[in-house]
Design brief:
With about 160 residues, this protein is mainly α. Helix content is about 75%, strand content about 0%. It has one domain. It has four helices and no strands.
Length: about 160
């Protein structure tokens, strides 16, 4: 019998598969990143009155930072230094794709709701943002799991 030092379970409840635990952590991180972006977007559009397209760019940038770090460290248990070429640049490219798609959706929503009150306008802009990112959510999980956060430095959660 081989003994190993105790490793953190990364928040996985006992009795669930490692893949499901990873997916649940990914969902939680997505919630944090989405919440961060939506609060930023809501403040900029609804309170400050910033142009929705510009506000979406800022909100996406703000939400990307916790998303990268939480995905890297908590969801996929990456240790050590970040790889600029293997992790940061591809993650940024995924974020940029999301930014382009969400900005187009936000622009369409903003243009169609400009005559409504600020509350409805803000709600439409935020709904467009969520819908656009929802489309990319599954694809991003597969890419992060199979490409970006694999290999050396990845701890596997204990079962």
């Amino acid at each position: 019998m081989t003994t190993t030092s105790a490793k953190p379970s990364l928040g996985a409840p006992s009795g669930i598969s490692p893949r499901l635990a990873t997916l649940l952590r990914y969902c939680a991180v997505s919630g944090v990143a989405t919440g961060t972006s939506l609060v930023t977007l809501g403040i900029l559009v609804g309170i400050v009155g910033t142009n929705a397209t510009l506000a979406n760019v800022v909100a996406t940038a703000v939400g990307t930072v916790p998303s990268f770090e939480l995905n890297r460290r908590w969801v996929w248990a990456q240790q050590g230094r970040r790889s600029l070429v293997r992790q940061v640049i591809p993650f940024s490219a995924l974020s940029f794709a999301g930014l382009v798609l969400s900005t187009l959706a936000v622009k369409v929503a903003a243009d169609h709701t400009a005559s409504l009150g600020r509350g409805w306008h803000t709600l439409a802009v935020e709904a467009a943002n969520v819908a656009a990112y929802g489309i990319l959510w599954v694809l991003q999980f597969v890419i992060l799991d199979r490409v970006l956060f694999t290999g050396p430095g990845r701890r596997r959660p204990v079962e």
